[in-house]
Design the sequence.
């Protein structure tokens, strides 16, 4: 598989959604900007699964075979399986978007790990959304956005110097 270089705006748009210059991280990453399936289609599929399951179990033919008690039990059991499928598909989708974005990200920001930027845990880049929101408000795009983000990453690394050094020491081991 050939690695494609995507614009930084498309990479960030697949991880974050912005409404009125307010940036929020997506729960289901969007492959649409990277040439894949849009997250809206995944959401539609996820919402349709319980409805389809209901239609399969509670149609007149199956309902006559099962009865009310067994139909309800089957629906609950299959609904729990559906929730597991949704979780696995979301995980696979998010990992695919990260894999697609990583080559461009590492060529643009070689010292910054993309997974740390997206992490909700304690990382040196926990204020990334705040800085990205400021860049969106300023209307930065292209090379100006890249240079501004590089400055922001340096600022975040300096602000969280101890954490950054400890994480680098752990990675070297």
Sequence:
């Amino acid at each position: 598989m050939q690695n494609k270089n995507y614009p930084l705006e498309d990479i960030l748009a697949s991880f974050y959604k912005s409404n009125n210059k307010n940036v929020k991280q997506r729960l289901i990453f969007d492959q649409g900007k990277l040439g894949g399936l849009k997250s809206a289609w995944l959401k539609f599929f996820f919402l349709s699964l319980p409805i389809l399951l209901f239609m399969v179990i509670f149609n007149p033919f199956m309902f006559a075979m099962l009865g009310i008690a067994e139909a309800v039990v089957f629906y609950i059991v299959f609904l729990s399986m559906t929730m597991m499928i949704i979780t696995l598909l979301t995980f696979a989708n998010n990992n695919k978007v990260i894999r697609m974005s990583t080559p461009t990200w590492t060529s643009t920001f070689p010292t910054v790990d993309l997974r740390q930027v997206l992490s909700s845990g304690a990382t040196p880049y926990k204020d990334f959304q705040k800085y990205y929101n400021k860049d969106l408000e300023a209307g930065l795009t292209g090379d100006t956005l890249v240079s501004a983000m590089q400055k922001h990453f340096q600022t975040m690394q300096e602000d969280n110097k101890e954490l950054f050094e400890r994480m680098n020491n752990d990675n070297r081991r």
In short: The CA atoms of residues 17 and 46 lie 20 Å apart. The first strand starts at residue 16 and ends at 19. Helices lie at 8-15, 39-57, 60-66, 68-108, 114-118, 128-138, 142-159, 161-172. The chain has eight helices and two strands.
